[in-house]
C-alpha cells in the first residue's frame, strides 16, 4: 500500500508540526481506539513505510516533514527494494505527560536512513550526466524517522505513528586562504624587487668610477 496524504488548509503561517506528546496522546491513542479526530490535519496510513525510499513520498521536493500511521509487525521489514536500510539510532526515549505528573504515555524510537552506496553513486552519475557548469545539481539529503508507539500501560496496540524528515547535506567548503598566504610568505623579497626593476625596461645605471 503506497502512502497517501491528506489535510485541510491551515491558516497562513502555520504548519503541521505536532510534538511527541501530541503525537502519542491525541493522534496515536485516538487512532488506536478508533475515535474521530477534529484536527485539520490527520496523517494517513502507510503500512510499508519502512520499505519505501523517502524520495517516493508524496510531495517530495516541496515537503520536509511527513507523518504516517503504520501497523508494525514483530518482523517489520526495514529495508527498501534497493536494499537501503533504516537503522535504529540511540536509545528509546520516554514520552511523558507533565499534566499527569510525568506519566509515561508514549515511547519514541529514532532511525536513520542508510543509502546503498553502489546505487547512490550510479544515481548521482545519472542525475549529473549532461548538466552544464551553470546548471544546479540536485540537492542531497540525510533522512531520519521518529516512531511513536504506546506503552502497554496505556493501550495494547500495534499502531505506531511515524514522522519522517530530512536535512539538506551542506556542501563541503575548502578554505584555500591559509595555503595562499603561506605561499606568498615563502617567496624571496629580493626576487620581487628584481622583477619590478626589470619591468621598467631601463638599462641598469653605470658603475661609479
Please summarize what this structure is.
It is built from four helices and six strands, in the order H-E-E-E-E-H-E-E-H-H. The chain has 209 residues and is an alpha+beta fold. Strands 1-2-6-5-4-3 form a six-stranded mixed β-sheet, with helices on one face.
Which segments are poorly predicted (pLDDT under 50) over 5 or more consecutive residues? 1-6
Helix content: 10-25%
Query: Which descriptor suits the 3D outline?
Result: elongated
Beta percentage is 25-35%
**Largest sheet: spatial strand order:** 1-2-6-5-4-3
Main β-sheet description: 6 strands, mixed
| Radius of gyration of CA atoms, rounded to a whole number | 29 Å
Which sequence of SSEs, written as H and E, runs from N to C?
Answer: HEEEEHEEHH
**Whole-number mean pLDDT:** 74
**Structural class by helix and strand composition:** alpha+beta
Count of DSSP helices?
A: 4
Describe the structure.
The protein is an alpha+beta fold and 209 residues long. The protein has a six-stranded mixed beta sheet, with helices on one face. Strand 3 (85-97) and strand 4 (103-114) form a beta hairpin. The chain has helices spanning 20-33, 117-128, 177-185, 189-198, and strands at 44-45, 65-71, 85-97, 103-114, 141-149, 159-168.
Amino acid at each position: 500500500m503506497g502512502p497517501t496524504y491528506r489535510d485541510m488548509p491551515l491558516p497562513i503561517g502555520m504548519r503541521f508540526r505536532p510534538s511527541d506528546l501530541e503525537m502519542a496522546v491525541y493522534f496515536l491513542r485516538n487512532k488506536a481506539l478508533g475515535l474521530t479526530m477534529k484536527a485539520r490535519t490527520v496523517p494517513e496510513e502507510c503500512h510499508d513505510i519502512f520499505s519505501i525510499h523517502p524520495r517516493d513520498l508524496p510531495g517530495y521536493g516541496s515537503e520536509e516533514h511527513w507523518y504516517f500511521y503504520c501497523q508494525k509487525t514483530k518482523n517489520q521489514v526495514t529495508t527498501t527494494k534497493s536494499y537501503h536500510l533504516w537503522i535504529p539510532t540511540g536509545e528509546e526515549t520516554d514520552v511523558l505527560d507533565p499534566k499527569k505528573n510525568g506519566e509515561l504515555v508514549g515511547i519514541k524510537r529514532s532511525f536513520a536512513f542508510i543509502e546503498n552506496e553502489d546505487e547512490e553513486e550510479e544515481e548521482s552519475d545519472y542525475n549529473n550526466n549532461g548538466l552544464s557548469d551553470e546548471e544546479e545539481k540536485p540537492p542531497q539529503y540525510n533522512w531520519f524517522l521518529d516512531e511513536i508507539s504506546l506503552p502497554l500501560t496505556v493501550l495494547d496496540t500495534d499502531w505506531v505513528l511515524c514522522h519522517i524528515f530530512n536535512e539538506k547535506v551542506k556542501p563541503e567548503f575548502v578554505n584555500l586562504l591559509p595555503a595562499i598566504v603561506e605561499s606568498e610568505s615563502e617567496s624571496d623579497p629580493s626576487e620581487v624587487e628584481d622583477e619590478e626593476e626589470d619591468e621598467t625596461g631601463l638599462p641598469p645605471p653605470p658603475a661609479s668610477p
